[in-house]
Amino acid sequence: MSAPSPTKAPAEDRAAEHGGPEEPRRPKGPGSSAVGRPHAAWALPGVLFFTFFAVVPMGLAFYLSFTAWDGLGDPRPVGLDNWRKLLDDDRMVQSLWLTVLLTAASWVFQTVIALLLGVWAAGRQRNRAILSAVFFVPFLLSSTAIALLFYALLDPNFGIIRENILGSSNGAFLAIVFIGAWQFIPFHTLIYQGGARQIPEVLYQAAAIDGAGRYRQFFSITLPQLRHTITTSTVLLVVGSLTYFETVLILTKGGPGTDTAILPYLMYEAGFKSYDFGYASAIASFLVLTATGLSLVLVRLTGFGHMRSTREGM
Amino acid sequence: MESISGRSNGGQPTGGGLGGRTFSRRWVLGAGATTLLTTGLTACGSSDGSGGGSETIDAFTYGDDAVKVQAAAVDRFNKSAAAKSAKGKVKLVKVPGADYTAKLRTAMGSPSAPDVFFNWGGGSIRAYQEAKQLLDLTDTIEGDPVLKNGFLPAVLAAGDLGGRHYGVPMRGMQPVILFYNKAVFAEHKLQPPTTWDELQGINAKLKAAGITPFALGGADTWTELMWLEYLVDRIGGPEVFAKIQAGDSSAWGDPAVLKAAETIKELIDDDVFGSKFSSVSYVNGGAPAVFAKGKAAMHLMGSWEYSTQLGKFPSFAKKNLGWCAFPTVEGGTGDIRNVVGNPTNYWSVNARTQNKDAAIAFLKDCASQTYAKALVANGDIPTTAGAAELLDASPNPQFAKFQYEMVEKAPAFTLSWDQALGADIATPMLTEINKLFVGQSSPSEFVSALKELK
After folding, report:
1. Could you tell me the end-to-end alpha-carbon distance of chain A, in angstroms, rounded to an integer?
2. pLDDT at A10 over 80
3. What ipTM does this complex have?
4. A157 touches chain B (CB under 8 A)
5. Any chain B CB within 8 A of the CB of A75?
6. Which positions ≥6 away from A141 have C-beta within 8 Å?
7. B28 by DSSP, 3-state: which?
8. Do A157 and B289 make contact, defined as CB atoms within 8 angstroms?
């Protein structure tokens, strides 16, 4: 299949729909065509829900970040106080660093394993299908259940690993990275499995004829063909890591000391423990801005936004 | 609030004023609560207006085993002549423990706030008082012989804010006690310590025998707080914290606080809590099990430790569980009879209540002998003035009497610091305490960090 053929027919349809053949026909890449798009009204329920349950609360949180509010009475405007505190707070600096570290460590750990597992699982043998289903199980469990399970396993007196893991800085941090990986690798594996199955068999056949071995095939075909899958998985992973929370709450409560107090936990503590909702809202707004910015940058840098076919130029 | 909701999150009983509950239940509660919190707070459970007309008042309480005492009191009150003359009835809203403080805060900020609500006194209600949501009960209590003489004065005073009463005691007392394993003490020919020097001697002997002197569930910061509370009291007397509680943050600079922090550092360097204490939890039963199995010889814990052990290790609780006061520290000014912990829980009244007469008539029931008897039957020690004679009916009269006398004779009862201070200060304070215990800050860094808290 080559790129022009799928675009041709839709472009004609579109012209017919608008009733204007005069419209200049520019060649369009797949995905950029407006054809067959449902009427805008269909989006209404989605837009309404998104407005009421995402945009409005986000706007409120942003507004609260300029107030002092302990949950009682009315919020009192304090201008930029919370944002200034955010910039001055030593804990915030540490928290940001921990969040970055957690995101980076999670990305390396999860991407490498999920990619290899996904490519492996893309094969069609029956045992792989069964194993893939088994791998997927952790993702189906609730984060709370997983955190409680590991809490029991890591108990220094009665658990499986009788070391001071959750009570030591590195141990607690690594435990959180590991548990996150245990929980989310199955999901990313599934994405990679899907991506790998889309790679045309002919590429491998041609490579085999050229004498490429399995490793060469992996690095020269599989990996480049999966680049958009990697982007998708990375965006999900980065945004997920930025908002990672339940495991920290249950397993370490930000401890020992403040060594696992990542941003979402700091936000929770400011809001629901100190009842300083203004400051908590500033942290929340900061998180939203960071996560949105980061995913935009990722999408831009990787060209994901263009939605080009991976098979382009084949 | 770290203290309150932190405890509640774990289903830990201090805050809740639980008496005897088992681990599994506490654990499950904690798990459920955490789920709720992470998925966002549910709306307030009360819905006045839909109930029995405007004269019915809502009472929020912490929903644990002891709630049956309050449920019975509500039934009794609703049928009483007092309810008729006040033209009001009480509807009890049992809030699952772990969600309690967050839910109360949400409700109090909304139109469907409770009329009467359970709390920990002191700092736990300061925000409500500052928002003018609390009824000042001082004149009511002073003018009513039943309420005025009904409770131990130290307990009534411990829940005060600025010398005014905002609460009526309504649950059992929870002093912090030094528990010890009688079998281990007998085997190594040890006596319960009365001074810090004696304690040091005991620690040395235990370590030589390969036994960790103290169990400590350091994964829960409030367990570490208990050490600091007693050490500051014994070294500098109750006045030191009283000043801090009154809002003087420079009082953290009192030499007693630094000395207490240094003492804690010595204990940790000396390994008296073992090397893994920061991973051990109280709420999941880790620390109590270490103690009951003789791996650790002592445990500084609230009075609920007795019922915890009774639930999990009944034969240990009955045969080998010993208790005594926290020892004095040489050169310190604190009286060995001084107590820290939670004196009890209180009912406070919302200033916006629709039926003040009914609310106050209901509170009077807590001073009654019937109410006290129900608490005793539940394993709790009432804080009513005449409770002493009821204690023979307790599941463990010996322990009940020890506790009652401990509190009755205490020259000072310091409310747990995290309850005494507002949440805005208590939360970072607990973080600093944890940093001290895990070695992230030195005693002097600890003191300067606390002085910054405002």
Report:
1. 9
2. no
3. 0.81
4. yes
5. no
6. A183
7. helix
8. yes
Question: What is the mean predicted confidence (pLDDT) over B89-108?
Answer: 89
Better-scored residue on pLDDT, B16 or B94: B94
Interchain pair A157, B286: CB under 8 A: yes
- Answer yes or no: do A167 and B276 touch at CB < 8 A: yes
Phi, psi of A11, rounded to the nearest 5 degrees: -60, -40
Q: Tell me whether residues B35 and A142 touch, CB distance under 8 A.
A: yes
CA atoms within 13 A on the CB side of A262: 24
Residues on B contacting A at a C-beta cutoff of 8 Å: 1-2, 5-6, 9, 31, 34-35, 37-38, 41, 102, 105-106, 108-109, 127-128, 131, 133, 218-219, 221, 275-281, 284, 286, 289-290, 295, 423-424, 427-428, 431, 434-435, 438, 440-441
Helix H or strand E segment including B236: helix B221-236
Task: Provide CB contacts within 8 A for A163, sequence distance 6+.
Answer: A156, A171, B276, B279
Q: pTM for the whole thing?
A: 0.83
Give the model's pLDDT for residue A46.
Answer: 93
* pLDDT surpassing 80 at residue B352: yes
Residue B21 has pLDDT above 70, yes or no: no
pLDDT number for residue B24: 37
> What's the token pair of residue B326?
């926290």
Task: Please report the pLDDT score of residue A303 as a whole number.
Answer: 65
| Residues in a beta bridge with B179 | B299, B323
pLDDT in tens, A140-193: 999 999 999 999 999 998 888 888 999 999 999 999 999 999 999 999 999 999
Distance of alpha carbon B451 from its chain centroid, rounded?
25
| Contact assignment for A259 to B440 by CB distance below 8 Å | yes
Decide if B127 contacts B423 (C-beta within 8 A): yes
B45 pLDDT exceeds 50? Answer: no
| CB contact (8 A) between residue B279 and residue A144 | no
Beta-ladder partners of B164 = B161
Omega cis (within 30) before A256:
yes
Q: Which two tokens stand for residue A129?
A: 């299908």
Confidence band, pLDDT 50/70/90 cuts, at residue B33:
very low
User: In a mutagenesis test of the A interface, which of B276, B350, B419, B453 is the best target, namely the one with the most A β-carbons within 10 Å?
Assistant: B276
Instruction: Pick the residue from chain A with its C-alpha nearest to B288.
Output: A157
Coil, strand or helix: which one is B94? strand
